[in-house]
Amino acid sequence: MPLLYLVAFGLGLGKSVSLNGVAYLDYIVPGVVALSTMNVSFNAVSTPLTIARLYDKTLEEYLVAPITVYSYAAGKILAGSIRGLYAAAVLIVVAWIFQANLLVNAWFFVILVLNCLIFSSLGFLVALKIRSHPDMARFNNYVITPMIFICGTFFSVDSIPSPFSQLIKLLPLTPASQGLRAVVLGGEPSLVLLTVQTIYLVIFVSWGLKTCLKVE
Questions:
Q1: Can you spell out the DSSP letters for 42-53?
Q2: What b/e string do you get for 52-72 counting C-beta neighbours within 10 Å, with b at 16 or more?
Q3: What's the pTM value of the predicted model, to 2 decimals?
Q4: What residue spans define the domains of the chain?
Q5: Helix ranges, 67-190 (H)
Q6: Could you report the per-residue pLDDT of 31-66, keeping only the tens digit for each?
Q7: Shortest CA distance to 212 belongs to which of 8, 41, 43, 67?
Q8: CA geometry: angle 155, 3, 101, nearest 5 deg
Q9: How many other C-beta atoms are found inside a 10 Å radius of the C-beta of residue 129?
Q10: Which of 7, 57, 98, 176 could hold 115 in an S-S bridge, CB 3.0 to 4.6 Å?
Q11: What's the first-to-final CA gap in the chain, in angstroms?
């Protein structure tokens, strides 16, 4: 799906369209990287954990094994995050092949890792909270999928009237999209964006651990 976005919006519109003085291909690549890491990190944890908990009934085997809940949660969340980083690496290479001006530095990597950890931990939390597989599908349809399109991935959030723009800026994916784009355009992410990401990470990890302890 992210590759389709790059082809349709990036190569389709390409450098013939600009947004805020930036070629549209260069503008959307950070957003596509952000939404791709969100999807991959979330689904890499939520789907297998949902199956293990509701259908295979193998979650209990992990919980009674001689490892702590904290180790189990850390393993799941870190594994999902690495999957997200792998997807990001593939997209970055493809973007360079498409001749996008994509700057990858330390700030870019920090924002990317935070985004992967946030949605991996959200996947862990949701998988422990839902009661059926259709519930997971509904969460994807009503929470994850809308964020793909409204969190500044394909357009500027500032172009949306207030108070909707302020609400969108508070969604978990928006800081990643805006932060990655700021880095790609030669700037640095604001402290507010990094703070919002950190707060989301702390909330999702803490809530997920609390839920997992209850399951145990």
A1: HHHHHHHHHHHH
A2: bbbeeeebeebeeeeeebeeb
A3: 0.89
A4: 2-215
A5: 69-97, 106-129, 133-139, 145-150, 164-169, 173-184
A6: 899 999 999 999 999 999 998 888 888 887 877 788
A7: 67
A8: 60
A9: 14
A10: 176
A11: 37
